[in-house]
């Protein structure tokens, strides 16, 4: 008589909804901090069809550093087999490496340095636009327009479509978007990329997409599908990531008199300030797809399950960072995974750091001290890429 395989137990169980939890909507970082303090290091939540979540640095790093067991093939929870492929983000070794090596030279420090004068022009122009007003809604007036304009210009997206592109990205990452609507938005992005690629094939310009169309990749040109896939990733990453980093950073600086004063009086400290703010206000929780029965920190997990890795947990680990709740510059080192970890560490981290450094320098010089405007209720976005949707600031205009 045949015996049935025992039921696969997924435990411990802890209730957590990374998209719709009311605590996330109230304050995303407070919600994740509560998770770190009170949830098991690895747990199963029934939300979104059920998936694992890790809440310790050790468990997070174990998942991120072992793509042989924890795949990037599905970048959503639950897994969506119809999602557009994003090269190289949704690839695992060995397929991942050649594409990563192809793109890496365009984002190294020496490749980014020539962009500095143009980035400074954007920062000067956008801060000047609000300086005399004494107030602004940061996300719309500056937080999005600065890094998004820089990235669109770098890649080759037409700047006259800024509002359209930013609107698509905001809706794509929205927490209440249906799978059907997200697919429609994906099709819009893909259609935009096809138009851009065809325009640059006909008339190349001094931008990244024109270079990628002509580059040699393993003795051949990139295919149309490969170009679209690379562009899709850059569209989403380039139009959202630095926006969120700046907005969370400015929210903190508006309430931290000592750190804000340091930024204004000692511009050389700004790179360290950026790293510490990225550590404290990391905003990405990355999904991985489990490809074999295995363990995470001693907990059994199974083929076909998904695991969510809040990157916050690396920078918040007491073994790596003393007093991780505090924002301070006297640390011997600033350990965090705000730009990812392992083979999928963000390609654009040098560009992001340069953009943020220039922005904070420009803001400190032109605006100086600033504060949160009163009577505002902040709305946070959950999901795999978290955001603060609006931030009203004010200052004493000269």
Question: What brief labels describe this structure?
Answer:
disordered N terminus; 46% helix; alpha+beta; 5-stranded mixed β-sheet; 398 residues; Cytochrome p450; globular; 3-stranded antiparallel β-sheet
Can I get a quick summary?
This protein is an alpha+beta fold. The chain is built from 17 helices and 12 strands.
What does this structure look like?
With 398 residues, the protein is an alpha+beta fold. The chain has a single domain, classed as Cytochrome P450 (Cytochrome p450). It has 17 helices and 12 strands. The chain has helices at residues 22-26, 28-38, 57-64, 96-103, 109-112, 116-131, 138-143, 145-155, 162-172, 179-202, 208-214, 224-238, 241-255, 257-265, 270-280, 312-315, 349-366, and strands spanning 42-45, 51-54, 70-71, 135-137, 285-290, 294-296, 299-301, 306-310, 371-372, 380-381, 387-388, 392-394. The chain has a 5-stranded mixed beta sheet with strand order 1-2-8-5-3. Strand 6 and strand 7 (299-301) form a beta hairpin. Helix 9 (162-172) runs antiparallel to helix 10 (179-202), helix 10 (179-202) crosses helix 12 (224-238) and helix 14 crosses helix 17. It starts with 21 loop residues before the first helix and ends with a strand. Residues 1-5 have low confidence and may be disordered.
- Name of the CATH homologous superfamily: Cytochrome P450
Amount of beta strand: 5-15%
Biggest sheet strand line-up: 1-2-8-5-3
Mean of pLDDT: 92
């Amino acid at each position: 008589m045949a015996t049935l395989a025992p039921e696969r137990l997924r435990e411990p169980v802890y209730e957590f909804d990374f998209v719709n939890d009311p605590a996330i909507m109230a304050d995303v970082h407070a919600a994740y901090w509560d998770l770190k303090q009170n949830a098991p290091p690895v747990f199963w939540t029934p939300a979104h069809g059920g998936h694992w979540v890790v809440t310790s640095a050790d468990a997070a790093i174990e998942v991120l550093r072992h793509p042989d067991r924890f795949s990037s093939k599905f970048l959503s929870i639950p897994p969506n087999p119809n999602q557009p492929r994003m090269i190289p983000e949704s690839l695992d070794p060995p397929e991942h490496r050649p594409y990563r090596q192809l793109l890496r030279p365009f984002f190294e420090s020496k490749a980014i340095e020539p962009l500095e004068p143009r980035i400074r022009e954007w920062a000067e122009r956008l801060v000047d636009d609000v300086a005399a007003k004494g107030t602004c809604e940061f996300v719309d007036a500056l937080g999005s327009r600065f890094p998004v304009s820089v990235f669109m210009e770098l890649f080759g997206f037409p700047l006259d479509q800024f509002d359209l592109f930013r609107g698509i990205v905001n809706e794509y990452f929205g927490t209440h978007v249906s799978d059907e609507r997200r697919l429609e938005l994906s099709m819009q992005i893909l259609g935009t990329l096809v138009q851009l690629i065809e325009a640059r094939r006909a008339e190349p310009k001094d931008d990244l997409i024109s270079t990628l169309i002509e580059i040699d990749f393993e003795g051949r040109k990139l295919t149309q599908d490969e170009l679209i896939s690379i562009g899709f990733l850059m569209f989403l990453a380039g139009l959202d990531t630095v926006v969120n980093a700046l907005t969370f950073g400015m929210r903190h600086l508006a309430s931290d008199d000592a750190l804000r004063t340091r930024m204004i009086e000692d511009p050389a400290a700004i790179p360290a300030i950026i790293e510490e703010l990225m550590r404290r206000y990391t905003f990405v929780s990355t999904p991985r797809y489990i490809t074999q029965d295995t363990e995470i920190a001693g907990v059994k997990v199974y083929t076909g399950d998904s695991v969510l890795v809040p990157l916050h947990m690396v920078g918040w680990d007491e073994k790596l960072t003393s007093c991780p709740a505090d924002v301070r510059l006297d640390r011997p080192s600033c350990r965090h995974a705000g730009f990812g970890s392992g083979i999928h560490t963000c390609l654009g981290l040098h560009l992001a750091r340069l953009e943020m450094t220039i922005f904070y320098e420009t803001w400190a010089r032109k605006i100086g001290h600033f504060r949160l405007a009163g009577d505002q209720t902040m709305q946070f976005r959950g999901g795999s890429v978290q955001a603060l949707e609006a931030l009203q600031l004010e200052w004493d205009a000269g």
